[in-house]
Structures are given as structure tokens and as C-alpha cells.
Write a structure and sequence with these properties.
Organism: Amycolatopsis sulphurea
Low-confidence stretches: 1-10
Protein name: DNA-binding transcriptional LysR family regulator
Helix content: 40-55%
Number of domains: 3
CATH superfamily of the largest domain: Periplasmic binding protein-like II
InterPro entries: LysR_HTH_N, LysR_subst-bd, WH-like_DNA-bd_sf, WH_DNA-bd_sf
Radius of gyration: 23 Å
Number of helices: 11
Domain HTH lysR-type: 15-69
Mean pLDDT: 88
Keywords: DNA-binding, Transcription, Transcription regulation
Number of strands: 12
């Protein structure tokens, strides 16, 4: 029981330090409050309290907003070291009594939440039957906010330019799998039946795209730009089943990740893409730095590696009928 109390006692490190870290990550007090599930006034009060005890200003007025002072930046750098050490200690304590691990919170983008994380939940429950596992569906950027706010323990994300760099000392990011993008076309399309096609062969097609600002929209734009064209957007859809229905109706083509599940019965076909590089999503795992050895997290990471290997060898269905 001592291990359980120690591992779940969030007051072992002054939680006001984490409030400061989340404000720095989110950019505003309001956004940090949402991530932490606090009120903005509570966030401001905790930072004022911390600044008063330290005797240095942490926030400075910057127009209508605030910015972190040099003292706050120094504190954040040292706090990163402190939190890494604390996560490592929690891992060592968990090794001594893994049966006391009571909860694990997983977060990930929609495809990961449906195609990868259910397997992970089953594996963690098998190894740690006393552990409650929760899945949170979230966009990649939000996943990192959840990790930092200690609202999640492990994230599965698609690599984008907006994410923290791999060198960010707050997180431990590792490659998980390459998720190829397939061209989704009507079942009777001329490209169906070929072993693979170049994305440029669809340059003159009407395109069904995700909405601007969404991760997949940027991914498709980049893939098409690398193939030498800008897609002509005919329709916008943020759901795979909607995009599949539009493609099946002959309204355009789309790029869809290999991991994405699409409904049968829409008279559509996946066509694998060739080229160098082959268009793909790069999927990563992320945890708070130092936490990788914690028993439940270690089990979940191993399960993700297993399911990634299984997915890599899964055959591609040519048609959905």
C-alpha cells in the first residue's frame, strides 16, 4: 500500500510547477486551465503564489496577454529535470510491487483509438488485472498537453510539424510504425487492379479532403505537393465513412491511411501507392520522459509494438463491396 500511496500522491512535487509547465506549453492561462481542468483564476492564483514564495516574477504583461519571464524559463528547465527523475523513481517503485498499479490513461488520434488502443487495453488488463485503463481520443497536439497536464500517461500520435521536437526534454518520443496512405477510388475506376500507382496519376481527379487545419488535410497536401500537383478539392469530410461514401458515389478520390477502417458496401477500392517516398503517416508513441519503465506503461508500449508488427503484415483489401 505504501507504493500505491506514493505513486499516486501528486503532491510529492509542488503541483504549481506543473501549472507553470502547462501554461508554457499551452501559451495562455485560459488554455492551460482547460488542459488542467482548473478555472483560469485558479491557475493565475497558483502562479502568483509560486512567484511570491520564490521571490521572482514568473509572468509579465505582454499586450493583452502574458509572457514567461527569464526566471520562469530557468525554473522550467530545472523542473524538467525534476519531473524526469520523479517519473524514473515511480518506475523503480512500481518494479518492487507492480500489483499496486491502479490506473493507466491512453490517448491517441481517432484511427489509433479504434485500430491500436483496444488491443493495448486488453493486454494491460491481462498483465495487470487490477489496473483500470482509460482511452481518450484526442488530436496529436492535444495529446501532448494531456501528457504534460498529467491527464494521460501514454500517447499515440501522427508526426506533424506542430508537435514538440524529439529533443524536447519533457517527453520521450519513439517511432511506432509507418502507416501507408492508399488511394481510395470507386470500385470501377481505371486504376483498380494494378499492383500500385503513383499519386501523380490522380492529379486530375476531383478530391475529397479533410477540412483545412486538420492533421490529415495537411498530410494530403504535402503528399500531393511531393507528387507535383495541388489537389482540386470537390468536397470536404472529416470522417472516413463519409469520405468513403462520397468516393463510392463517384464524387472524387481520397487518400486514406491503411489503418483506417472503412465501411463495406460503398463500392470502393483501395489502391496502394508507389513512389519514393511512398506517402505514409509516421506514427509515434510519446510518454513523459522518465516514465517508460513504469510497469503499466511498459506493458502498453510492448503491446503497441506487437500490434504494429501485426498491422504491418496485414494484407491490403483491394475492394470494399
Amino acid at each position: 500500500m505504501l507504493v500505491q500511496r506514493t505513486m499516486h500522491n501528486e503532491r510529492m512535487i509542488d503541483r504549481r510547477l506543473n501549472v507553470l509547465r502547462v501554461v508554457a506549453a499551452c501559451g495562455t492561462v485560459t488554455a492551460a486551465a482547460e488542459a488542467l481542468k482548473f478555472s483560469p483564476s485558479a491557475v493565475s492564483a497558483q502562479l502568483r503564489s509560486l512567484a511570491g514564495e520564490l521571490g521572482v516574477p514568473l509572468l509579465a504583461q505582454d499586450g493583452r496577454g502574458v509572457r514567461l519571464t527569464e526566471s520562469a524559463q530557468t525554473l522550467l528547465a530545472r523542473a524538467a529535470e525534476l519531473y524526469t527523475l520523479w517519473e524514473e523513481i515511480r518506475g523503480e517503485l512500481g518494479d518492487t510491487d507492480p500489483d499496486q498499479i491502479r490506473s493507466l490513461r491512453l490517448c491517441g488520434f481517432s484511427t489509433a483509438a479504434s485500430a491500436l488502443l483496444p488491443y493495448v487495453v486488453a493486454k494491460v488488463r491481462d498483465v495487470h488485472p487490477q489496473c483500470t485503463v482509460r482511452i481518450i481520443e484526442a488530436d496529436p497536439e492535444e495529446c501532448f498537453e494531456l501528457l504534460l497536464a498529467q491527464q494521460a500517461d501514454l500517447a499515440v500520435v501522427v508526426a506533424t510539424a506542430a508537435l514538440p521536437p524529439r529533443t524536447d526534454t519533457r517527453f520521450d518520443q519513439q517511432s511506432l510504425l509507418e502507416d501507408p496512405l492508399d488511394l481510395l477510388v470507386p470500385a470501377e475506376h481505371a486504376l483498380v487492379g494494378r499492383g500500385s500507382v503513383l499519386l501523380s496519376e490522380a492529379a486530375r481527379e476531383p478530391w475529397i479532403m479533410d477540412r483545412p487545419g486538420r492533421t490529415h488535410h495537411g498530410l494530403v497536401l504535402t503528399a500531393c505537393a511531393n507528387a507535383g500537383f495541388t489537389p482540386s478539392v470537390a468536397h470536404e469530410s472529416s470522417e472516413w465513412d463519409t469520405a468513403a461514401a462520397l468516393v463510392g458515389a463517384g464524387l472524387g478520390v481520397a487518400l486514406i491511411p491503411r489503418l483506417a477502417r472503412i465501411p463495406a458496401g460503398d463500392r470502393i477500392a483501395r489502391v496502394p501507392l508507389g513512389g519514393d517516398p511512398t506517402p505514409a503517416r509516421h506514427v509515434l508513441t510519446a510518454v513523459r520522459r522518465g516514465s517508460r519503465r513504469q510497469p503499466a506503461i511498459a506493458t502498453a508500449l510492448a503491446a503497441l509494438a506487437d500490434v504494429a508488427r501485426l498491422r504491418a503484415t496485414k494484407p491490403l483489401p483491394e475492394k470494399e463491396t
